[in-house]
Every structure is written in C-alpha cells, then in structure tokens.
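Lay summary. Proteins are chains of building blocks that fold into shapes, and those shapes determine what they do. In this project we predict the shape from the chain. Here is one chain we studied, written as its sequence of building blocks.
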Amino acid sequence: MSNVNKILVVNSGSSSLKYMLFDMKDESMLCKGLVERIGTASANLVYQRAGGKKREEAVKALTHGEAFEHVCKAITNKEDGAIAALSEIDAVGHRVLHGGMEFTAPALVNATVKKAIRKCFDLGPLHNPPNLTGIEACEKKMKGVPNVAVFDTGFHMTMPAESYMYAIPRDLAKKYSLRKYGFHGTSHKYVTETAAKVFKKPLSRLNIVTCHLGNGSSLAAIKGGKVFDTTMGLTPLQGLVMGTRSGDIDPAVCFFLAKKEGMDAEALDTLLNKKSGLLAISGTGSGDMRDLCAAVQAGKKEAKEAFDLFVHRIILYIGGYMALLGKVDGIVFAGGIGENSDFARKAICERLAPLGLKLDAKANKATHGTLARISAADSKLPAWVIPTNEELMIDRETYRIVAAR
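And here is the predicted shape, written in a compact code that computers can read:
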C-alpha cells in the first residue's frame, strides 16, 4: 500500500486522548487536539485546525470509545473540519508506552500485537491499558483502516546487556522480564535523526547525548545512531530527578518506609512517582520548572537546593555517557524544559565546561522552542536545542510500516 495520504496519530492516556492529523504530501499538520478528563462528568474536547482558532466544548465521554467519536466528529465538522470524511484517513498511528521484549520496532496491529500489549499491562499499568483501548476504539470506528503501534521502549532495545541488565537473580529477571527498557524513545529517535542532519553525519557515525527534559526527563547515550544506554529503567521512575518522580534512590529507602510508616507497595509507588521529585523538595508547591527557576532567582534556599540536585543528576549522567561513548559529537536538548528553559540549560552547560562545552550566552537566552546552536563557535563540545516532535515521528513510523505492505 504505497498510496498513503493522510495519517491520524493518537495518544491515549488514562483520562485523555490526544490526536493529530497529518497530510503526508508534505508532512503538514492538518489539525490537532485532545479530549481530556475522560470518564468524568467534566470531559472536554479541544480542537484546532491548522491556522485556525482553538475551540473547546464540553462533551460526554465516559469511555475512550466515546471520546474518539467526538474526535471523529470534530475533524469532519462541516464548518472547520480538516477532512470531509473519515474515509480520507489511510492509517492510524498509536503511541504505546511499553512493548516489553517483544518489540524493537513499530508494528502493524493485529491480534498477536494486541495480546503482547496486554501482556505488558504489568510493566506499564497506567499507560498500556488506555493505549490498547485507544487502538480498539479506532478499529471499531474505522473498520479496515490499518493501525500501527509505535512503542516508547522500541528505540532503546539496541542497548547491550551491560546497559540493560539488573544485578538480580537471573531466574527472576527472566520470569518477569525485569530489565532496563527506557522511555521517551519516540522523542529520542526523532531528535537523533534530526541531529544527524544538523551535525551533517550519517546516523551510523553519530555519537551524541540526547537530553529529553520535561516533567518527565530522560537522557540517552546514542552510539552510531543507536541507543547504548538511557536513564529510565523498567519504568519511567529510574534516573533523573523529575517533576514528581524521585529518580534514582537507594532501594532501601522503600524498606525503611515500609517498616517505619507502614507503607505498602501501592503507597510507595504513589510516593515515588507522584509525590516526590521537584514537587517534594522545591518548596514551590509544584514540580514545574518555571516555578522553580523563579523561586531560585528570588533567593529561595529550598528551591536552589532542588534546582542544584536536578542539574547535578543530569551532569552525573552526561559525564558518564560521554565516557562510555568515547568520542562525542555533541549534546542535544529537547522537551519542555530542554527547549524553553534557558536558565536550566545555562546551569547545565556551565557545569560541562571541564568537558569542553563553552556556552554562547546570547544564543542560549534567545532560544525558546526553536532549532539552534547554543554553544560558542569555538566550543570543543557542541550543544544544540532540537525541538522534539513525537507526533511527527509516530506519523513517519506509521507511514513506513503501512506504505511497505
């Protein structure tokens, strides 16, 4: 099937369904939006056609299936719809959080693929169930239209054993597929492919550290265009200090709290994933980097400590990854913080001065959400901001799979 003209990208969360429609003639975005607060009485549809005004309306969406019905009506609306009929959509690409060990690349959805996604519910309990629900809603509404699953973990499956293994009994690791998987793979892949063009090097010779920094943050060591190591692990909890996630801690903290506070596994999961990170230590009442930077600049001690810890952990990993890679072509920033917080980038880059990074302060200050070099012309270690586009990456992956059928 080589005649693929329009692709719908769907990202189903636990209580939301984000969507974006692309025209494959030039990869342009035709419309985008989301249905939020699915399953509640206050569900809301957001829709925006390219170049048009954003509109919102309250909708009844107790299920993802009902939410998708509203999406279909919005994109085919006679007044501001992007297409006349659903029959114009040639394929649907879905973000799926966890592919386990079964998937190293995007896959055309069939019964086997859905079974594998379901098998990973234990590994991705908050994301995989709604991801599958979104796929099934599309299958029901648009019968015969191919659906493609694009896995967040897929890009990271090139890691060698030394990077992904946990030093626990092998029989337990094998029984439950316990290993480092990594996440934000779609973002890291998009940024890597774009970096190859920016650095004017073939992917097979590209060595970079990609920094996806947002409310959820992860780094990846890219060796020869492939992931050699990444900071997130079995789940997105491992690694950097994030908005509400603790990142790396001594596992014994969990044993200690279980004994002293009587916390069970569910309570500890909630604590480390939703009540920790910058939210817990910044003193700002939020895990938002904008609030943190403002508090740091206002001289708040707790905020400064939290910000320094955030930067410290990033530097720790970047330095380690550079040692693992040997020769490094550059450092790349992406994600909400990476693309927009010149304050955070400045702190990170200045700490990398001993490794050869010389910041161009003016370029850094002027860069917000745009592709730009932020290191000085004579910097031995280049640093760039490359805005990520996960939806476009899912769109491209979907096209590759469907067009090759």
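What the prediction tells us: The domain at 6-151 is CATH 3.30.420.40 (Nucleotidyltransferase; domain 5).
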